[in-house]
């Protein structure tokens, strides 16, 4: 589980869609990853400065999701993002999917993002804008 004392980077609302449900009438496990991705993109888009360019771009290197409680439709959710670890070329983001009021924890997760040069595939240092946003 993520460190709740880490600085909150973003709190992104998500509305559960009917198509997110599986045969058991709750959100499919793979859709949890989509919610995390959508929240990360909202966070990245709000960073002051470049977080991607022709010479650097993020890729997902690892993810771990802990499913705590099923999500049913209809539901309004919040994805919280915190920086758990800030490295030279990568960072680990902690996520929590909760009810809007925070009273229900549906999932907690971590992802490792690495910045690469798209042409070579080699890792590159984190962009200054990303480092500043996480500090």
Explained architecture:
Helices cover 18% and strands 39% of the residues. With 135 residues, the protein is an alpha+beta fold. It has a single domain (8-134), classed as Thiol Ester Dehydrase, Chain A (Roll). It is globular. The two termini are 21 Å apart.
Write the layout of secondary structure elements.
Elements: E1 8-15, H1 29-45, E2 57-67, E3 76-86, E4 90-99, E5 105-116, H2 128-134
Antiparallel strand pairs: 1-3, 2-5, 3-4, 4-5
Radius of gyration: 15 Å
- Classified in CATH, the superfamily is Hotdog Thioesterase
Strand content: 35-45%
What is the multimeric organization of the chains shown?
single chain
CATH topology: Thiol Ester Dehydrase, Chain A
- The sequence of SSEs as H and E is EHEEEEH
Question: In terms of per-residue confidence, which ranges show pLDDT below 50 for 5 or more consecutive residues?
Answer: none
If strands are numbered along the chain, what order do they take across the biggest sheet?
1-3-4-5-2
Q: Biggest sheet, in brief?
A: 5 strands, antiparallel
Which features would summarize this protein structure in a list?
globular; alpha+beta; 135 residues; single chain; 5-stranded antiparallel β-sheet; Thiol Ester Dehydrase, Chain A; 2 helices
What would a concise description of this structure say?
With 135 residues, the chain is α+β, with helices and mostly antiparallel strands. It has helices spanning 29-45, 128-134, and strands at residues 8-15, 57-67, 76-86, 90-99, 105-116. The protein has one domain: Hotdog Thioesterase (Thiol Ester Dehydrase, Chain A).
